[in-house]
Every structure is written in C-alpha cells, then in structure tokens.
Amino acid sequence: MEKMEEKLSAFPETLKLNKEFRRAYHQGKSAATPYFICYRVKNRRQGLRYGITTTKKVGNAVCRNRARRLIRAALRAVYPRMDADFDYVFVARERILSAKSYQVAAAMKGCLKSLQDGAQNEQKPARKSPKKEGKPG
Description:
The protein has helices at about 1-10, 20-25, 60-80, 100-125, and strands at about 15, 30, 35-40, 50-55, 85-90. By secondary structure, it is α/β, with parallel strands linked by helices. It has a domain at about 15-110: Ribosomal Protein S5, domain 2 (2-Layer Sandwich), CATH 3.30.230. It has a five-stranded mixed β-sheet with strand order 1-4-5-3-2, sandwiched between helices. Helix 3 (about 60-80) links the parallel strand 4 and strand 5 (about 85-90). Helix 3 crosses helix 4 (about 100-125).
C-alpha cells in the first residue's frame, strides 16, 4: 500500500484551473511536434505540474481519451528529465491517434530538450562578435 502511494506521489501534480492553462498559453514558451504542442512556464509553486488538453478536432471521446493516455504514458517515460518548478501543458493534435507510444515519447523528449535549451540560451547574454575591420577600397 505504501509503495503505491509513493509511486503516485512521485508523479507530477496536474493542472486543474482554467487560469493555470491560460497562463501557460500566454506567458509560456512553446514547442510543437507532429503529435502535440507543449507549453512551458515557470510556476509560482514548488514542484513540477502538467496539464493535457484535447479538442473535439482530435475526434470523439474514445479518441480524445486515447490521445491523453498516450501523452501521459510518454510523460511517465521522460518526467525525471523535466525541470522542477515549471508547469507544462500539452495540447494533442490529430496525428497522435496514428502514433505509437514510443513515437510520442521520443517526440516529447526532443520537445522538452528544445524548450530547456531555449531557456538556457535566453539566460546567457549573447556574445558580441568582433567587428572585422576591412580596408577601404
């Protein structure tokens, strides 16, 4: 019983409020894959949180639930690599329905890497390249 509780507590908390999702859409950085769009925003709480959105464009309820299951399975595979103190929102795309879980996990790994690299590049000041002095003429 305790092991099960430890497993559940180790997995990130979910976003539930509409304002939390909207904050990620408007203030967060995004990266797109063929299967989903990922938004990443620094949160005001401690710890990692995630949210999954599927629209009716994805399909009927069965299809939308499958899309959410695929994203959640991929998240379980890569969440140890995710940065703490960030909110992640995943918006499913139609192509996720034809994907296998390992393809979604690979896409998520690449997407998270690009978001983390982008954040590191923003924090470091850009180096100015020395101007080359040319001879007039």
